[in-house]
Specification:
332 residues, alpha/beta, TIM Barrel, 14% strand
């Protein structure tokens, strides 16, 4: 079940560059794409294209690589019915090479365009309700939905997905992983922390939730995003991470009303280069990367998404595919 994927970076690159990157990723042997769905980037220096337009372009520019969001928040700036339609369209274009990852979002992307930012518990309930509506619409039947937050009347999707789109639910802490297992078809989290016990607890809670909802957790994807660099200048990649992504390392961003790139970057100023190095694998030794990834495979993760902040993503993809992905596939 091992799937080796690429975390593409709309927060760092314009969509035209990203299109060349996804084509190169497929050629290099990456099997899946995880694309952020942001309205704002983490920094004023960044980018933030409309990811659903880009996913359509990627679908018709590739042949085999799986495409999905990592992640979409379907509860505030989007009505979940629109996300159901968007994901179904990508699935149709990609001939079924599609998944959807969802979460409770960040104020960075939601508050600035809705002036709404409910407490976490409410956002979680909204997400669960949104998932239910999305699944109903994917049946192709007319849906009259009367929820606490979302309502439809005889709504119907006329362009249906070409696969049973799995819905992964994001969980960054063990407390939310049970929800991901109970309501989701897969798990998405972020790696890099030295304390493996946290990931053991996340996986355990996810598996418990899956079993309680009648699913076999052994058959469900468990995805993790990992920050790496190889085949390019690691110091430049670290500088790029600090420039574009530092705010993403601060847990407060996912809870508090931090709603502009400037506010995100201000939060990220407390992040030092030592923190970046500690949360990643920077090495020109392929064995270091293989061991780094195998640590997560041994924990129980089945889908690995690799994210580099290198300026030259094509060089990274070619080198990583040649020296590391091929070795992992031989042993896995």
């Amino acid at each position: 079940m091992l799937k080796l994927g690429y975390k593409i970076a709309p927060e760092q690159f314009p969509p035209s560059d990203m299109l060349q990157q996804v084509i190169a990723a497929e050629k290099a042997g990456f099997e899946s794409i995880d694309a952020s769905d942001h309205f704002h980037p983490w920094s004023e220096n960044g980018q933030a294209c409309f990811i659903w337009s880009w996913l359509g372009a990627a679908a018709v520019s590739t042949q085999s690589i799986e495409l999905g969001t990592g992640l979409t928040c379907p509860i505030l700036r989007y009505n979940p019915a629109i996300i159901a339609q968007a994901a179904a369209t990508v699935s149709s274009l990609a001939e079924g090479r599609t998944y959807l990852a969802v979460g409770t979002g960040e104020a960075l992307n939601e508050y600035s365009v809705t002036l709404e930012w409910p407490q976490y518990d409410e956002r979680q309930i909204r997400m669960i309700e949104a998932i239910g509506l999305i699944r109903e619409l994917w049946t192709g039947q007319k849906v009259s939905f009367d929820g606490c937050y979302y309502r439809t009347k005889n709504a119907k999707l006329y362009t249906l997905p070409k696969n049973n789109i799995p819905i992964y639910i994001s969980s960054l802490v063990p407390e939310s992983a049970y929800i991901a297992g109970y309501y989701g078809d897969g798990l998405l989290t972020v790696g890099g922390e030295s304390d493996t016990q946290k990931y053991e607890q996340i996986l355990s809670e996810f598996e418990k939730g899956a079993r309680d909802s009648g699913k076999n957790p052994e058959h469900l994807p468990k995805a993790v995003e990992l920050f790496v660099d190889y085949g390019t200048d690691p110091e430049t990649s670290i500088e790029n991470f600090m420039k574009y992504w530092a705010g993403a390392l601060i847990p407060a961003l996912f809870l508090n009303k931090i709603y502009t790139p400037e506010m995100s970057a201000q939060n990220g100023k407390v992040v030092g280069t030592d923190t970046v190095r500690k949360n990643a694998c920077f090495s020109e030794n392929p064995e270091d990367h293989i061991n780094f990834i195998n640590k997560y495979i041994d924990l129980g993760f089945t889908h690995i998404y690799l994210h580099s902040a290198a300026s030259d993503q094509i060089a990274f993809l070619k080198a990583y595919g040649k020296d590391i992905l091929s070795a992992l596939k031989e042993t896995g």
